[in-house]
Specification:
Helix content of chain A: 25-40%
Radius of gyration of chain A: 17 Å
Distance between the termini of chain A: 15 Å
Order of helices and strands of chain B: EHEHEHHEE
Largest sheet of chain B: 5 strands, mixed
Radius of gyration of chain B: 17 Å
Order of helices and strands of chain A: EHEHEHHEE
Helix content of chain B: 25-40%
Strand order of the largest sheet of chain A: 3-1-2-4-5
Distance between the termini of chain B: 18 Å
Number of strands of chain B: 5
Strand order of the largest sheet of chain B: 3-1-2-4-5
Structural class of chain B: alpha+beta
Shape of chain A: elongated
Number of helices of chain B: 4
Strand content of chain A: 25-35%
Number of helices of chain A: 4
Largest interface: A-B, 18 and 27 residues
Oligomer: heterodimer
Largest sheet of chain A: 5 strands, mixed
Chain lengths: 139, 140
């Protein structure tokens, strides 16, 4: 089995606050991440694709095509945005990096179809800071 | 449950991704700058992961010094500071994409790493910090 992973970056802000909890509960649970005006991160996104290596190209997937797709479907929607206000997926969803990983997977999955032949989406990894990594795998 | 141990190594080499069966334009569309005629190089990083069970006497899955030596002999020495397409088989006929290099690293190491309590689990090849390939054999 061959898996190819490509790494991307984007910068975005968020505030962790759940409408289902009181102000105090939010402050307790999310700490600094609950500060009212939000804050930002330089996110690192790794997208892993698995599939057979094409006999002609020697590739699992065209890097150029994957870059264009991830740029269009994910990076453009998130880069230099306030996730709570600018990204509709987070209208009713707390933009924790767990939820961000799920949203990214959904965005990538939506238009995937047969755009990349036999290559399928294998994993999504979101690094919020160098100390926090969130991974969805065997998708 | 099996345990995994990983040893890392590096080599620097040049390559060109170009398929003579395709036109110049097709090659550039497919490989971009990697199709340029005189090639270019990378500092490749490989991560070699073994799966196994620690030996009750030594407490080790495998002696990492021996693993380092096998990686050096089979991969680093033949590939370091070489132009892969011209100097390292099978890249005279196999396009040295990171996918194919990862598989070749696996093919060179796997026969050397068949032990009762340890075997090769995966090879990861970084072409750059932003692109890597994992290969874990043809059948898995």
């Amino acid at each position: 089995m061959t898996r190819l992973t490509r790494r991307y970056t984007f910068s975005a802000s968020h505030r962790l606050h759940s409408a289902a909890m009181s102000e105090e509960e939010n402050a307790d649970l999310y700490g600094k991440c609950n500060n009212p005006f939000g804050h930002g991160h330089n996110y690192v996104l790794e997208v892993t694709v698995r599939g057979p290596v094409d006999a002609v190209s020697g590739r699992v997937v065209s890097i150029g095509a994957l870059d264009g797709y991830v740029q269009r479907e994910v990076i453009r929607r998130l880069d230099h945005k306030d996730m709570n206000h600018d990204v509709p997926d987070f209208a009713d969803l707390v933009p924790t990096s767990e939820n961000l990983s799920v949203v990214v997977e959904k965005l990538l999955r939506a238009g995937w179809g047969d755009s990349f032949g036999a290559a399928s989406l294998d994993a999504v990894r979101v690094q919020e800071t160098k100390r926090n990594l969130f991974e969805l795998r065997d998708l | 449950m099996e345990m995994l141990i990983t040893r890392k190594a590096e080599f620097s080499a040049s390559h060109r991704c170009y398929n003579p069966q395709l036109s110049e334009a097709e090659n550039h569309a497919l490989y971009g700058e990697s199709a340029e005629s005189h090639g270019h190089g990378h500092n490749y990083v490989i991560e070699v992961t073994l799966a196994g069970h620690p030996d009750p006497v030594t407490g080790m899955i495998f002696d990492l010094k021996r693993l380092k030596e096998i990686i050096r002999r089979e991969v680093v020495d033949p590939m370091d500071h070489r132009y892969l397409n011209h100097e390292v088989k099978p890249f005279d006929t196999v396009i040295p994409t990171p996918e194919n290099i990862a598989r070749e690293v696996w093919n060179r190491l796997e026969p050397q790493l068949r032990f009762q309590n340890a075997k090769l689990h995966a090879v990861r090849l970084y072409e750059t910090d932003d692109l890597y390939v994992d290969y874990s054999g043809a059948d898995s």
